[in-house]
Amino acid sequence: MAHYFIGVGGTGARCLEAVVYLAAAGLVSGNLHVLLIDPDANNGNSSVAEGLMDYYYLVHRERQPRNAQFPSRIRTHHAPPPVLFQSRINDDGQFPARWNVQQRNNRRFSEIVEYASRPQKLRSFIDLFYQASDLSMDLEVGYQGRTNVGAVALKQDLEETRDIAQTGLREFLSALTNDLQNGEARVFVTGSVFGGTGAAGIPTIPALIKGLNDADLPQNSRDKLRWGCALMGPYFIFPRDTSGNRNLGPGTDSTKHPVATQAALLHYAHTHPGYQHVYFIGSPYRNQTNEQNHPGGDRQRNLPHYAELVAALAAWDFYSLPDIHPGERNLHYADSFDNGNDLGVSWETMPVFIANHQSRRAEIKQRLVSFTTFAYLYRNILHNEFISNKSYLDSTMYKDNFSGRNLRLEGHAQEQALVGLSNFCGSYLEWLRDVGRTGGAATPDSLPVLFNWEALEPHDIRGCEQRVGNLIQLGTRQAKRPPRYGSNGYQKIMEKLNRTKLVAPETQSAVGLFVYLLHHAVSEFCKENYDWR
């Protein structure tokens, strides 16, 4: 089944970042086609997501072993399939991930509606719906919380770029049309309901695709489309704009987000947005995610928030649902309350579909803890000591699996991929710490949280070696007893790595083989260390 993800606006870009991390950890699998839709071509949130995917492509292209086997005294037995970086995103970067609106600079909304050329009576009618500041608003940095502006401008721009190559939208629609010839395709859209671009795009996108003519998308293919979305309610704040500079338009104000959300939901209560499954996501603790008020542009780089992780889990849930019927209407929501007590953000309150919720939560925990341990170990310890200094050449792991098989970790291409892996792991750990800060604010001090956040803070190599086995909080319900190898986790992982030997590498990529071997050793370590049964 083909999976598609559309992030609309800056919030959609933040949610896409979380989706890419889940794909790297092995939760989101299969082919995934993503598209960021934002008229703000220089938006910093979108740039962060694009840069992250560049690192992902470098690692994903290094093919890991499939059908590998472990030696045995009696007979060989199959090794587990690879887990990390397996989702094929945008055909390894062959398709643009960001929509190119191809707009002129300093374009104003009055040009979109051709205000100056309209008869006086029609201009007076337009004035009923738009203020003078709306009409003069520069669209260079998006719609700035003006949904009434965005709904018109976005629809027109999407339709104008639908058939233009390398705009991202044409490639997205072509891939979707091809996949629908082979079966069902699921499209998940996420964006804010309180802003301008997200609120404008959520109802516009399914209407645009469903409105294609039969030559572009036959009716029998259209019937195989399944739609899901994450409506992002208020979950962050930023300072008010005190500069007095309105050259770019009316500006943005996070204090108005709750009112805008209420108005949007009232509209959707009477006009269905066109999705079979709707996930409504917000946070009662709205953390400040930017030190200044930036309506758009490169400086709009919001800090991550745990609500974006929840949105990514919503996409994962939607992709893994059983059969979805076209006429379904499902609203998903969850909270962390149990008998009136707020349990905060923990493994036991991760929002999942109620069916098989215990196994689903266990899967989330084990995938993320294993990947976090992998990223922590490689980024903070191995990349410099084990890779840059070439100390792996004398390791048993290297002699057993690389030497004599014409597989070498030296060379420009290999080093480039390993640097990409290090950068991706560094971005993930920084993102995870920010998620921890916002999640911690929503969790009572007496209750467990997702990770041992202090251990994830930057340390020297020796300090990281002592902490790599303590990434889950000690003695909580997540770890029913203290970790078995809390003080010597690094040593235990390296022992497992050096004992891991494949009969044949089943890959021509040295980096892919190394990622596979390291993750296998980390996974086996986590099972023992945290008593996963």
SSE order and pairing:
Blueprint: E1 2-8, H1 9-25, E2 31-37, H2 44-60, E3 69-70, E4 77-78, E5 88-89, H3 90-93, H4 109-112, H5 120-127, H6 132-135, H7 147-161, H8 169-180, E6 185-192, H9 197-210, H10 219-222, E7 225-232, E8 236-237, H11 257-270, E9 277-281, E10 287-288, H12 306-319, E11 330-332, E12 337-338, E13 341-342, H13 357-388, H14 396-401, H15 412-441, H16 453-456, H17 461-467, H18 489-499, H19 510-529
Helix pairs in contact: 1-2, 1-12, 2-15, 7-9, 13-15, 13-17, 13-19, 18-19
Query: How many structural units, i.e. domains?
Result: 2
Strand content: 5-15%
- Poorly predicted runs of 5 or more residues: none
Shape: globular
Number of strands: 13
Strand order of the largest sheet: 5-2-1-6-7-9-11
Q: Quickly count the helices.
A: 19
Largest beta-sheet details: 7 strands, parallel
Radius of gyration: 24 Å
Distance between the termini: 31 Å
Fold and architecture overview:
Helix 1 packs across helix 12, helix 2 (44-60) packs across helix 15 and helix 13 crosses helix 15 (412-441). By secondary structure, the chain is of the alpha/beta class. The chain folds into 2 domains: 2-63 and 84-338; 361-529, no CATH class. The protein has 19 helices and 13 strands. A 7-stranded parallel beta sheet has the order 5-2-1-6-7-9-11, with helices on both faces. A two-stranded antiparallel sheet has the order 3-4. Strands 8-10 form a two-stranded parallel ribbon. Strand 1, helix 1 (9-25) and strand 2 (31-37) form a beta-alpha-beta unit. The protein has helices at residues 9-25, 44-60, 90-93, 109-112, 120-127, 132-135, 147-161, 169-180, 197-210, 219-222, 257-270, 306-319, 357-388, 396-401, 412-441, 453-456, 461-467, 489-499, 510-529; strands at residues 2-8, 31-37, 69-70, 77-78, 88-89, 185-192, 225-232, 236-237, 277-281, 287-288, 330-332, 337-338, 341-342.
